[in-house]
Structure formats: C-alpha cells, structure tokens
Batch of 2 targets.
Target 1
Amino acid sequence: MLSLASLKARWASLFGSFVALLLGVIMLTMTGLLLTSAKPQMPQRFSAAAIVVQSPDPLAPADSFLPRRPWSPSQVERLVAELSAISGVVAAIPDTPVYAQPLVDGKPTAATEGNSWPAAALAGHPLTAGVAPTRDDEVVMPGRVPGERVTILTAAGPHDYTVTGTAHGIYFFKPFAGVRAIGLLTHGKVDLARVERAVNGEGKVLTGADRAALESPADARTRWIGLQVLTAMAALTGFVAIFLVASTFSFSVLQRTRELGLLRVIGATPGRLRRMMFGEATLIGLLAGALGVALGALAAPLLGSLLVHAGFEPPSFTVRFTFWPMACAFLAGLMVALTGVVLASRRAASVAPLAALRAADAQRRPMTRSRWVFGLLAIAFSALLGLATATADALSIPTLAGGTVMALIAGIALLSPALVPPLARILLSPFASGPLGLLVRQSAFTAARRTSATAAPVMLAVAFTVLVTGMVQTGAEAYATRREAQIPGTAALIPDGTPGLTNAAVSAGATSVLPTTVWHGDIPLTALGLSAQRAPDRMVVRGSLAQQRGWTVGSVVPLTVASGHMVRLTVGEIADAAPADILVSRDSARSFDPDALTSVVYLHAEEVISPTPGAKMVSAAEYAALADAQEDRLVWMFTLVLVGMAGGFTIIAVANTLLMAAVARRRELTALSRLGATARQLIQLVCLETTFVVALGALLGIATALPGLLAIRAGLSQQIGHPVTLIVSWPALAAVVSACLVSALPASLLPSASASRARHRGGRQSR
C-alpha cells in the first residue's frame, strides 16, 4: 500500500523510469519476435516438391556459409532412377540453379537465377504461353513474348536466346551439373522409409518444414547478419534500460531524502523503505511491461520490413507471433526494474531520521565507500578488456570494445561526483566573474551527485555514439587502406549491377581472381583461380590447412569440384599467407565451376579494356573503397540503428532527469525570483546550468569512449601491419549533443517560468 501511495504521489518523478522501461520492453518484444522469426525459409523453387533429397551437410563451422558438396553425375543418375521407381513418386527432378541475368537496354535486371526447364515443375511454374525450350539457345522467361530475342548474362558472358514460352522464372533447355538437391513430385502417399533406403546415406530426406534447410548460403549469411543486429539491439536495450532506470531511481532517492527521513522519524524501518522502493519498481515494471509488450508486438512487423529493406534479412523474412518471446520481454522488463532499483533501495535504507530536519541540499559525502570500490573495480575491468581488445582478432574486437566502454561507463558514472568539482571549474571558467557562473559553479559543488546524475544520460548517449561510429569508420578506413596497398595494378574492372564478372569481361592478360569451392570429402575448402597460376594440375595450399590435413609438397589430393566431378591435384607449394585454402590456375577454377563469377580484374595503366555489360572500370583507390561497399553499407545501417536506439533512449532520459531536477529546485528559483532576479536572469541561469550539464555529460562520454577507440586502433594496427588513423565522427557527435541540449532546455525552462509567475503573484500580494 505504501508503494502504491508513493507511486501515486510521485508519479511525475518516476515517469522517466517508466518511459525508459517501456521503450526497453518494446525493443525486447520486437527483437524477441524477430529473433524467433529469423529462421531458414524454404526457397520457392521447391514449393511443389513434397519431398526433397539434399546432399550431405558440409563439415564446416555454421558461420562459414560454404555450399554443400554436390553429387557426382553417376550418383545423380542412380538417385534419380531409384527415387523415380518408388510408388507414389511421379518424378524425381534434379535442381540445377545457375547464374542468369537478362539485359534490358544493355543494363542487367534484378533477376539473377535460372534453372533447367524440368526444374520448373518443382516450383509449380507452368507455361502461361508458348512451348518448352528444346535447344540450347532457347529460354522460357516472364515478361516476354514467344519468338522474341533476348540477351542474358551467364557465367560465360552475354548470350542471345529465343523466347519459346513464358513462365514465372527463367528456364533453359540444357541441364546443368553440380546437383545438390533432387525434388520429388508425388501423388498419394510415399513410403519415406523406401526413400531413405534409396538415398542410402548419400544425402538427407527433407519434408514439410525441414525443407527450410534448402536455404541458400547467401540467404543464410544475410539472416546471420540480421541475427547479430537483433542480438546487439537486445543487449544494448538491456544495458541502456538498466543504466537509465538505475540512475533515475538513484536520482529520485536523492530528491526524496527529507521524505525518507520523515518516514524514518515516524517509525519506518530501513527494511520497510527498501521494500517500498522495490514495490514502486515492481508496479512500474508491471505497467511498463504490459504496455510495452502490446506496443512491441504491433511494431515488430514494421521493424521486420525495415531490416529486409536494409539487407539485414532475406526478402522471404516474415514476422511470426509466438507467446514465449513476449512473455520473456515482460519478465525481462520486470527484472530490469528490480535490478535498476537495487542500489537506490540500499541508499534509501541508509537515510537517517535526522535527514528530515536538514534545511539545505548540500551533500556532505557525495562519494560513498561503495562508489569508490565499485567504480574503481569497473575501471580496472575496463582496462583489462581494453588490453584484450588491442590484441584480439577481427571478430572479437567489436564485442571486447563494447564491453570496455560499458564497464567504463559504469565506473565513471559511479565516480563522477568526485569529477564534478574540477570539471565545473574548467567548463565554467569563462563565466567565473559573473554572478550566474558563480551560482552554477557553487550549485555543482554542493550537489555533485545530483549534477552527475543529470549528466549520466548525456554521457551514455555520447559514449555509444563516439564508440560505435568511430569503430565503424576507423575499421572501414583501415581495411580500405590495406586493400589499396595490396591491389596489383592501377585500375580495376568490377561488377556493375551484377553479382560478379562473366568470363567475357576478363582480359586474357589482366590479373584476375575466380573464387569457387572444392571439397575434400565433405569438408568445403575455399579456392581461388588466379591468372598468375599456370600449372593446371598443381595447387598452392594454405599452411594451416596443410598442417591440419597432413599434406606436404608433392602430396596428391582427391577433391570434389563444383560440377560434381572428382579431380586430383598435386600440392606444389605451401604458403602460410595464402588468401584462400587453395590456389589454382584460373583455367582450372573455370573447369571446376562453370557457373563461377570473377570478383575483380586488376589492370595496369597501359591496359585498356572496353567493359562488357555488367562491368565497369574504376581506379585502384575507388576499388579499395568499393570492394566491401555492400557490407560497409550494412554495417553503417547497423550503426545507425544502434546509435538511434541509444540516442532515443537517452534523449528521453535527459529531458526527464532535467525536468525532475528542475521541478525539485522550483523552490530555489522562486526564492531567487523573490529576491529580485528577473525572468530573463532566471532563464539565463537555467540555460547556463543545463548547458553545463550537457557539456559535462558530453565530456565524460568522450573520455569514456576514447579508450575503447584507442584499443580498437591498436588491434587493427596489429592485424593489418601498419598504423591506423583514428576517426571520430564529429558530425554524429555534434548531432547527439545538440539533440540532448534541445531536449534538455525546454524541460529545464518550464519550472523557471513557474518561479517567475510565483514572483509576480508574490509582488501583487505584497502590494
């Protein structure tokens, strides 16, 4: 009852905690629903196949996104024959997707995949006009008229085809190699046990929802990126919500010192005060949790569509509503509220009865022993994480850097009351000679904890903005510089609206790279076909792979290639710094994988190439910047999402905290007004105080983020082998500081207007 009565009486001071928690539950609900929805989706080209037989799983890490080993042509022939003979199976059709991109007015269209005509039945794509293709130069495709001539980009280059019919997809007459799936068209019931016996361990039998395992490696990688985004959003949401709820409750206790002291005077025990604080947090958690879950469920489809548009999820992604993510978000909101109030409840229980008699707000001990101990421990932990960041690999750097800054935020937030006086002297030195500057400085001195609490949300916003944007831009610049130094030429031919360069785009004398995948057993290995490699039956092997497999120079290794055939290559050299598992000649790579596309062609100044459709020429510097442009775009979108989340949370918290502080000081402002301060002077005082708080938070935020960025720079320098320039996104920093100031000033000015009105009322009454 005491908690409910206190909540009713002080709802305005706890509104910020409610809003922070509400936003946190909304984000947790959305991310939870999206995470449970981010599951593999069956490709539509198998929608009519009730049963699909898939080649064996690759023996590789889940995040390698390498394709499965294809069956050999003889295996495909045997499987098709035995599966077709099973009762209830109408047809067993190999799936053979290939690169196919039609040209319209010389420009590539969005479609990038074709198949052999029999595979149209697996997708349920009947002819809508015309007839099926019967020759290698014929095609069935949508949006064209039978008899029309079209140009289609294939891995070999642009080829002219005659349209013989129309259907929902691009289908050729010629069957292709590299079969990894066989779809079964069925009629009636099929004995799955017979299908398993026919497969005989050479693959997996998929039915129903299990057919989602047919998802392409590209879609799986996109989904994995989305998973990282959603996980980071959930982690950031939890940290920011706990930090803001804890700081708001702590600030609330600071404002309620006299009230809590009065409760102690009338008999309330420390345990009763602690239970009251937990009761308030529970009520806020229940209210914010219920409303947040409802709003999060409504907003989840919108966030899902944004992730698809940004490239964080494949186009087939849809949000599925399940109960347990929403229940977990509700419980998480309640736990965040209770966690955030732990320190505040300890502070409330330590208030002495004599605090009710204090007439001044000066804090005799802004720094308690626990603040010193836990603050220094957090900074020490941050230093350890920073050292780990400086020596970490590329995948671990973002996680360790984030942990470094989070620990440093917690440490500086705890120690900030001790930092307020010296920083106040520095920041307010231009105003030291005037009465307003003196008032603001002395207020910061006598209420250091209040000042640090109001600056905490600004510190959080600035720290995350500087860290995340700086990390992304520093990393992008470092990798671009390394790429430019490694480019063996002065210019490059790169894809233009296509996933890669066709064989026709590659000059015979230029330096080019043709990526593919080969398999040693079921282990996928990355392979590069290089124009500099000449021997067709030899390969260069990465040192770590040779050591792992026991290969030495002269070893003859059997490998399965993308066409499904078996080849034997001799290890000609072992290179520790090889850019792929194995290096072969370009001609060998082309024979291994007829559908492979070249990623780039390096050119020298004397070489002149007329780009074919789907290719363009750029300088070496331009290529270095564009090489990972798509991935950099995704990372930058990810950055904006995280910064927007942290900024949105903290801007609301800034406004709420300063409003709470200003409301609590209304009596002071009224006293100043009645002592003769004009309305203009009150506004100037409040503006100066607010600007000082925002500047203090920004300074602490920059100081918090810089160690993390320096550790990132050290780690990147170690990785790429040359100095890295530290980049701070000053526009992003200016934007977030400006947003904090814009939200803080109106919240702080409202009570000054009230104080000014009180002065006028007092003046009229005295007359």
Target 2
Amino acid sequence: MAGLTREVARWLLSLNLPHFNKKLQCYVANGVLVAEILHCYYPNKVQLEHYVDGNSVHTRVSNWDLIKKVFINDKLIFKLCASLNLSLNSNLIDAAIHGKFGSINALLTELYETFTRKKVSKEGAAQDFTDYSYQIRLPFYARPTAARTIKNNIKNSELIEKPDMLNREKVVRKEFYKVKKNISPRF
C-alpha cells in the first residue's frame, strides 16, 4: 500500500477484497485484483473463476486480455469509461503487467476516479514509469552507468513477452539515448 493515496487505500479497504492486503503489486500485475474490483461493481459481467492467480508472463497477459474484453465488449462499462475518460491505455497496462515503478498506483488511482467519480490530487504522478526523476536529482558522479540504467528500466518479463531481438535492441537503444541525453551535464 506504499505510495497509494489515503482515499484510494480507504476505497480498496471498503470493497473487502480478498487479495488486497497480500502482495498488492503481484495481484495487480496479474490482473486478479483489478478483476475483483470490477466484480464488486459488475458481478454479472466479471466472473472471477476465469482469472488465474499466477505470476508467469503468459498468465498476466491472458488475465489482462480478459479485462480488456470486459471493457470493450460490455456497452455499459464502455460508456461509463468513455464518459469519465478512463485512460487505461496499453502503456499503463503494460507497465502494470511488468511491475514498473509507479504503474500500480497510477492504475488503482484511475480505477478509483472512474468508479467513485472523485478526483485525487496527483502530485508528481509520472506516466513514463522509469527512474528518470530520481536520476536527475543525483549529482553527476553518482549517476549509474548505461547498463545499470537499462537494467533498472527494462524488466525481464518485457523481454520474455517480446522475444524479438530487433525490438529488444531498439528498446535498449531508445532507453540509453533518452537517459544519456537527459542526464548528461551541459558545459
């Protein structure tokens, strides 16, 4: 629950979710907690027995595909999300699947704002899900090498899910040059 705002934590506690107090990041990453939240609001539309509680990349992706189908196929939920501008975009979902920094809090905050129709003050909520904001505050001599930066920002599950070597190389280069460009000192 670290990092969640008080309103979001109280909302999740009020739903009496069975997986809320245990391994929050794991249960959001595999989609089980999100399915339970949807089941609280739409018990006839979301059947919890279809969601597998597992930690493999395949399980995570298949659970999130089921959640996406609920959002797309059900007209009532689709209209609610469209009217409230629910931004569960693929970038946010991918970041949650791979457990990137800040993605779990952003996802739960989006769901809170959608279902309760209340706004949460977003102080410094970053949507890039990297450690850039931390790196920029460090003095130049304490900043990590390119290899360490890539290790911190690219998760193993991303590489397992997308085994294409060219794609890996592009992602690594993009992260390296982005970090190098933004962190290098200006003389």
